[in-house]
Amino acid sequence: AALEVIARIPRNLIITTCDSPKRAVAATAEMDPENFSWASDLCAATLVALFPNEDDYDNNNDGAAVSAKAKQAWIESWEAGGWATDSADLGPPDIDWGPKCVTGSLLSTGSDNDKNVFSKFRFPCHPVVFRAGTGLGMLTGADEQVSLNALLHRGKVFRGMRDALLTLVETPSDRKGSLRERRAWDVADVLSRVLARATTLGEDAELSFAVVPIHERLAHCGENGENSKLVASGDDVLLVASRDISVGEEITRDYTIAPRLDGDDTEGPLRLLLQ
Question: Which of 211, 215, 214, 190 is closest to 259 using CA atoms?
Fold first, then answer.
C-alpha cells in the first residue's frame, strides 16, 4: 500500500552533502568557486568515507567506528557507473582510439586544452572522446554532437574537482601509472559512480544531495513510474511505497529526476546511459 515502509536506513550509513565531513569540506574549499557543485561536494564526502582516517569519527565510540567500516565496505561494493566507467564499453581492446588509448577511464581522458592540441589533426577534442561521442550517439539515437558535448561536459566537471580531491585518495587503486594519475583516476571513478546513484533528500532550503543504501540499487521505473520514494524520519531515512505495489512487482525509482550536473541538458536514453 502507498506509504508502507519498505526499508529503514540509518542516517549514519548515508552519504549526504548536508553532513559533509570536515576533510571533505576542506578539500572542496580549495576548488575554484566557479567549479564547485553538489557533485564535487558529494564526491568529496564519498572519498572521505571510502578512505577514512581516525580523525573522521570518535575513536571512543564503537558504534561510529562500526558505521564507518560498514559505509566503507558499501562504497567498495559499487561497480557500475555511467557509460564507459568500464573501458570495455568502448569496444575491443585492440581497436584504434579505443580502450587501449584511454588514460584511466574515458571520464579522465583528455584535457581542457584538447581543442588546440588536436586541431592540427582535425579533431575537435581528444580522439578517444571524439570516437566515443560518435558511438554513444549511435547507441542512444541522440545527435552525435549532442553526445560528444555531453562527454566533454562530464570531463570538464571532473577536471574542475580533480586537483582539490586528490589528497582524499589515501590508498589509490592498483593501476599502471604515477601516484597522482592513480589518484585522479579514482576520483573519476567515484564521480561516475556517484552520478549513477545520487538522489535528493528534503525540499527547497533544506534540500541535500545523497547516495542512500538500497535506494541506489533500485532499477529504473520506465513508463510505469517509480513505486518508491525516500522520506526523512528522525535518525533514519525511510524507503516507502509511493503507490500500491503488486505482488512480485520490482521496487523501482525514477532516474530521470536524479540530480543533474550543472549545465547538463541531456534527455532520454543519452541521459540515462551517462548516469
Answer: 211
* CA 189 to each of CA 107, 169, 182, 263: distance values in angstroms, whole numbers, following the listed order: 8, 12, 11, 20
Q: What's the pLDDT at 135?
A: 94
Surface-to-core class of residue 116, CB atoms within 10 Å of its CB (0-12 exposed, 13-18 middle, 19+ buried): exposed
CB-facing half-sphere around the CA of 161: CA atoms within 13 A: 34
**What is residue 224's predicted lDDT score, i.e. its pLDDT?**
82
Other C-beta atoms closer than 10 Å to the C-beta of 156 total 15
What is the Cα gyration radius of the chain? Answer: 19
In this model, does residue 174 exceed pLDDT 60? yes
Q: What percent of the chain has pLDDT over 70?
A: 97
Tell me whether strands 219-220 and 252-253 are parallel, antiparallel or unpaired.
parallel
Query: Cell 526523512 appears where?
Result: 232
- Helix ranges, the chain (H): 22-28, 38-50, 62-76, 114-118, 127-140, 144-165, 179-195, 268-274
pTM as predicted = 0.93
